[in-house]
Amino acid sequence: MRLKHLLRLAILAATVTAQATTIGDTVKVINNPGKVVITESAGKVKVNVVGSPKDADYNYTYQLKQDKNGHITTSQTEGKNIYFNLPFSKSDTATCGKGFRHWECFISGLYFGFGNSSLKNGGEVKMNYLSEVGLLNLIGIGYKPNPTTRISLGVGFGKRNYYVKTPYAFAAADGYTIIGKLVNETGSRVSGVSSKVGVVQMHVPLMLRQQIGKCFITVGGIMNWNMHADIEQRYKIDNANERHHVVTNKLTQRKINVDIIAGFGYRAIGVYGRYQPASVFKKDYGPDIKSGWSIGLMLAF
After folding, report:
1. Residue 67 and residue 2: Cα distance in Å, rounded?
2. What is the arithmetic mean of pLDDT over 237-250?
3. What's the per-residue H, E or C state across the chain?
4. What is the model's pTM?
5. What is the pLDDT of residues 7-26, one digit of tens each?
6. Listing from the earlier edge strand, what are the strands of the sheet with 35-41?
7. Each residue's pLDDT tens digit, 58-81
8. Contact (Cβ atoms closer than 8 angstroms) between residue 171 and residue 177
């Protein structure tokens, strides 16, 4: 196969020599390139060089075209690569040579999951559930010391919802959050009660990702800025068809907390486990709700 390529290049060189008066000679020397790709098609040869000992992001492209009339034109470009990894895109580990080090920007980590939360209200402890959805890295900056390892820091957003089981509901006044049974002031029967605390978070994840063939494992920590929290109540009165929806804002949530996250996956699809030890509310401003563990799916860690 290699001899075949050499023969093709030799024939091409002869063609170029025959028309040297038109296009001239091109000589470009790149010592110890990271990778060289030669692409051949009908009437076209393209040589692409990626990486050099002094600059891992170096990129050089030389292209030669021959039209139907036998006229030959050439072009060459030289510059730097900027890496953008989007969700569902292939990893660039397949294009990295041995010892190829570089920085990259990427969007990654669309997640959705469920879990249990512990709720301590006075002396009573109850287990409830939570849901979460978000994008871990709306923008991420990663460093790859080798083709299979990435250390990254990013910024993303997400939302967690903490649910309490009926007939109980969350309520708030003057920044304090309580849990109790929802009743109507007129004494009417209240039914179909659902209640949750929603927390909007800004994520700052610090992650280590290790590629193993087509699989990967990842581990790290997430600092969360809890930007906003509210209570949603939905209920019916006297089994009427109308369902009431009440939203209460200005809760006294904990502003900063830290999660631990780990996961593994295949190609761009993975599963994760996330643990948050801190309570949702500031001390004495609400029930002691702790997330505990949540698990879910994540696309493109």
Report:
1. 26
2. 74
3. CHHHHHHHHHHHHHHHHHCHHHHCCCCCCCCCCCEEEEEEECCEEEEEEECCCCCCCEEEEEEEEECCCCCEEEEEEEEECCCEECCCCCCHHHHCCCCCCEEEEEEEEEEEEEEEEEEEECCEEEEEEEEEEEEEEEEEEEEEEECCEEEEEEEEEEEEEEEECCCEEEEEECCEEEEEECCCCCCCCEEEEEEEEEEEEEEEEEEEEEEECCEEEEEEEEEEEEEEEEEEEEEEECCCCCCEEEEECCCCECCEEEEEEEEEEECCEEEEEEEEEEECECCCCCCEEEEEEEEEEEECC
4. 0.65
5. 343 334 434 444 433 455 66
6. 35-41, 44-50, 58-66, 72-80
7. 888 888 888 888 788 888 888 765
8. yes
Please enumerate in sequence order all residues whose Cβ is within 8 A of that of 291, keeping only pairs 6 or more positions apart, or say none. Answer: 115, 117, 130, 160, 162, 259, 274, 275, 276, 280
Whether residue 86 has pLDDT greater than 70: no
Largest CA distance in the chain: 100
- 23 φ, ψ (degrees, to nearest 5): -110, -15
Confidence of residue 6 (pLDDT cuts 50, 70, 90): very low
